[in-house]
Design a protein that fits this description.
Blueprint: H1 2-10, H2 28-53, H3 60-76, H4 84-94
Helix pairs in contact: 3-4
């Protein structure tokens, strides 16, 4: 798979599909390029479908921003030793998910 991706990405020659008058399917190379194109399109379509169906992960940047926000809120409150959930709830309000 990696070799195929590398060949497609970096290329070596102009593919028949990219030529001004493609003759794909009329030659052995055209048929092979058509098979490569169709295989890559199936993989891409499946990857995109799976990506769109999966729930988005919570961003690590959002998590870090909330941690910093909660820390500074904790300092503003006088650095109490208990009730950390107050600072975290405040940070979640300051940086909502969307």
């Amino acid at each position: 798979m990696y070799a195929m991706r590398s060949t497609v990405l970096h290329g070596s020659d102009v593919m028949e599909l990219d030529q001004s008058i493609p003759i794909m399917g009329w030659s052995l190379w055209g048929f092979m390029e058509g098979e490569l194109y169709n295989g890559m399109w199936r993989v891409t379509r499946t990857a995109l479908r799976n990506w769109l169906k999966s729930p988005p992960p919570q961003s690590s940047y959002l998590q870090k921003a909330r941690e910093v926000c909660a820390y500074f809120h904790w300092i503003e409150r006088g650095r109490p030793l208990w009730h950390a959930e107050v600072d975290w709830e405040w940070a979640e309000q300051e940086f909502p998910r969307e």
